[in-house]
């Protein structure tokens, strides 16, 4: 019998695996009590990826010969790959007992415990393996993996480097080191490590995935796509690669291919609701409303269940602002995310720092932390603030991790901040150290949960007072003290939706750009593809904010206003096609949809608003910057605020302008008001005339006045801090205000 097994082993060494397996099976038919005749086929099945079959056969081998340390050691890995974690741990512990002086069983035990979520026990097992053999590259690598899961990135990096010192050609350690370096924003080093991993192992799907994601963060989308697709060529069922390809396509505004990739990921992992979340988010971007409402109901139910169990939410905080979630749900999602951010930023606790003092007569030092000090919506809205702060009372510092786009907006911001600290290439801990060393009193974190945001910096509490600004929901973070808002965007009773203390500005909380120039003359209707004599309804909100029930209303409005058209923003061809199809389903001729192309400059964009008659706001996530643009350009806007912050910003803008008549309570009133204005003889003309008057008379576009109120807010925050009191909700009052 032993000769037959030796022959089978020889065939395996020669690569003649099928022959070896047949020989083992023939032997087993004659001698079913021979453990090796079960063990060798188990290892062959494991090798070809038939993990359940391998586990079944290995279980038979162990029943026959439980005292074989080699069988128990390999059984742990076989069971682990099959997802049978209890037998995997039991086999590894048996192997440790049978071979106490060998490090491999302890390494296997660590892997099984890690898969079972027992990270500290896994860490202890890997350390025991390294006590037996200090140059054990796999154990160093695996220990680093556990430390990375525990968010101890410094220690993880050291482990991966020790693994490579012990075994320089160990590709998994190169790959893992690259991942840690990327997480620490050392992208150039990460790329070098990941390329080295691929040189060592060219068909390494995981390294292709990680290199693709790193290149995407370095704004190299074509190279990123090549590596993600290389990962999928190696492993067509690689769920994470399909997901990350979808994210890359979404970032590149290729909506159809984004949906296709996410759909593949969701099909491969139907029980993973995070894939459904990504797919539904991508579908929204191209107005693909298939799958609703069943998928959304399942997603929201799973989110509530996971949050109740203390697990990660499948919905990203920003996405929760566009899904039909309540303020309570948004807070729960944000709080869970904030806890994760805090753990990642400071796994061993936030380091104590000496709080900066502010001596009598010393200016308040306010730092604006942002990745959006450039040519985008946030930069457009905030650019007029920095030059207007009172330099006798405040020192303004830009804490910037934006990519320098060379724009006029960025130059204007840079020129009007007294100090400009670049943080883009620093890790969160290094950035926090630099902020603390700068003596910032009040840190204003702008849009921390937007794509590209780095909330981990504020999580290290580099300033004694920390404020969230411009992000349209709670951060859910205990490291953020205040949230800047107003009493329309956040009416009484909505405080419970926020973890932060609320600071109510006296008018709209949103800055409005500081008087942007408008091209004159601007384009006429013909140049915009619009009919000359018809009513033009307009919505330049991004099309992912459109919801099916709102589109029903818009199409009914078109049906009731003869000859009218809807002028929309939809950059993606797939979105345009889907919106046309949805209009046709609602019996509206697609010729009555006009899509606005991008224009070369902001003055030209503002000027073309004059070709429209009425801006129709969206619902769950309404217009913010787009609403400011419309009103500044003289275009009346109709809005229907709901119970969440994101739906109420346009109402706040209109209230500050004195236009309560354009704020309605429900969709029926929304439809009637739009139709009445469009069909009355002077309704729209009267609104335009009033808007022209109010634009200069109201507080909304008075940026000097707005900045004075911001200053009062920051100074009051500091006064509360200096008094020793906890952060507290308060209202900013203007001189002479009742």
Explain how this protein is built.
The protein has 738 residues and is α/β, with parallel strands linked by helices. It folds into four domains: 226 residues, Serine Threonine Protein Phosphatase 5, Tetratricopeptide repeat (Alpha Horseshoe), CATH 1.25.40; 113 residues, Alpha Horseshoe (Serine Threonine Protein Phosphatase 5, Tetratricopeptide repeat), CATH 1.25.40.10; 141 residues, Rossmann fold, CATH 3.40.50.11380; 172 residues, 3-Layer(aba) Sandwich (Rossmann fold), CATH 3.40.50. Helices cover 53% and strands 8% of the residues. The chain has 32 helices and 13 strands. An eight-stranded parallel beta sheet has the order 3-2-1-4-5-6-7-13, covered by helices on one side. The longest helix is centred in the C-terminal third of the chain and has 21 residues. The chain is globular. 51% of the residues are buried.
């Amino acid at each position: 019998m032993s000769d037959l097994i030796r022959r089978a082993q020889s065939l395996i060494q020669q690569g003649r695996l099928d022959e070896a397996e047949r020989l083992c099976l023939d032997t087993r038919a004659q001698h079913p009590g021979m453990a090796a005749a079960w063990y060798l086929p188990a290892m062959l099945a494991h090798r070809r990826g038939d993990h359940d079959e391998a586990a079944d056969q290995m279980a038979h081998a162990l029943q026959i010969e439980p005292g074989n340390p080699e069988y128990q050691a390999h059984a742990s890995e076989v069971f682990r790959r099959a997802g049978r974690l209890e037998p995997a741990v039991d086999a590894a512990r048996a192997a440790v007992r049978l071979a106490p002086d060998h490090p491999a069983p302890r390494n296997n035990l660590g892997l099984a415990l890690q898969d079972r979520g027992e990270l500290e026990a896994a860490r202890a097992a890997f350390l025991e393996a390294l006590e037996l053999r200090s140059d054990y590259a796999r154990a160093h690598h695996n220990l680093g993996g556990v430390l990375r899961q525990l968010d101890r990135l410094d220690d993880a990096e050291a482990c991966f480097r020790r693994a490579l010192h012990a075994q320089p050609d160990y590709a998994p350690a190169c790959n893992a080191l690259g991942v840690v370096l990327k997480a620490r924003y050392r992208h150039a080093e990460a790329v070098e490590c990941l390329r080295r991993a691929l040189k060592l192992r060219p068909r390494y799907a995981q390294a292709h995935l990680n290199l693709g994601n790193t290149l995407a963060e370095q704004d190299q989308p074509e190279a990123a796509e090549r590596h993600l697709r290389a990962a999928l060529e190696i492993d067509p069922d690689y769920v994470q690669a399909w997901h990350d390809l979808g994210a890359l396509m979404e970032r590149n505004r290729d909506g159809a291919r984004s949906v296709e990739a996410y759909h593949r990921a969701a099909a491969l992992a139907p029980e993973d609701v995070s894939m459904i979340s990504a797919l539904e988010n991508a579908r929204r971007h191209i107005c693909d409303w298939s799958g609703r409402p069943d998928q959304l109901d399942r997603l929201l139910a799973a989110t509530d269940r996971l949050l109740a169990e203390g697990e990660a939410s499948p919905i990203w905080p920003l996405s929760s602002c566009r899904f039909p979630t309540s303020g309570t749900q948004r807070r729960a999602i944000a709080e869970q995310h904030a806890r994760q951010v805090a753990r990642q930023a400071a796994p061993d606790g936030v380091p104590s720092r000496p709080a900066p003092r502010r001596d009598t007569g010393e200016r308040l030092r306010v730092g604006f932390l942002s990745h959006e000090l450039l040519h985008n919506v946030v930069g457009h809205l905030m650019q007029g603030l920095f030059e207007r702060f009172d330099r006798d009372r405040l020192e303004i510092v830009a804490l910037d991790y934006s990519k320098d786009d060379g724009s006029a907006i960025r130059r204007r911001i840079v020129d009007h901040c007294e100090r400009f600290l670049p943080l883009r290439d620093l890790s969160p801990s290094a950035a926090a150290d630099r902020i603390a060393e700068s003596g910032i009193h009040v840190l204003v974190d702008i849009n921390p949960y937007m794509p590209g945001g780095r909330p981990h910096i504020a999580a290290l509490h580099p300033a004694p007072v920390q404020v969230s600004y411009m992000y349209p929901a709670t951060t859910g973070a205990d490291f953020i003290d205040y949230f800047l808002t107003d009493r329309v965007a956040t009416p009484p009773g909505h405080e419970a939706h926020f973890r932060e203390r609320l600071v109510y500005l006296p008018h709209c909380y949103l800055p409005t750009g500081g008087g942007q120039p408008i091209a004159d003359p601007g384009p006429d209707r013909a140049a915009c593809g619009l009919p000359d004599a018809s009513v033009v309804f307009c919505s330049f909100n991004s099309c992912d904010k459109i919801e099916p029930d709102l589109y029903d209303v818009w199409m009914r409005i078109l049906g009731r206003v003869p000859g009218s058209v809807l002028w929309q923003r939809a950059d993606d061809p797939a979105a345009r096609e889907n919106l046309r199809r949805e209009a046709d389903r609602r019996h509206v001729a697609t010729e009555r949809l006009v899509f606005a192309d991008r224009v070369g400059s902001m003055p030209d964009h503002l000027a073309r608003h004059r070709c429209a008659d009425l801006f129709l706001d969206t619902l769950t996530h309404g217009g913010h910057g787009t609403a400011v643009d419309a009103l500044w350009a003289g275009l009346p806007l109709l809005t229907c605020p709901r119970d969440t912050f994101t739906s109420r910003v346009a109402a706040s803008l209109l209230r500050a302008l004195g236009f309560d008549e354009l704020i309605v309570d429900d969709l029926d009133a929304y439809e009637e008001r739009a139709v009445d204005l469009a069909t009355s003889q002077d309704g729209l003309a009267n609104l335009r005339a009033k808007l022209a008057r109010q634009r200069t008379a109201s507080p909304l576009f008075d940026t000097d006045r707005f900045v004075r109120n911001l200053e009062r807010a920051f100074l009051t925050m500091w006064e509360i801090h200096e008094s020793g009191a906890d952060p507290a909700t308060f209202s900013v009052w203007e001189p002479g205000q009742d």
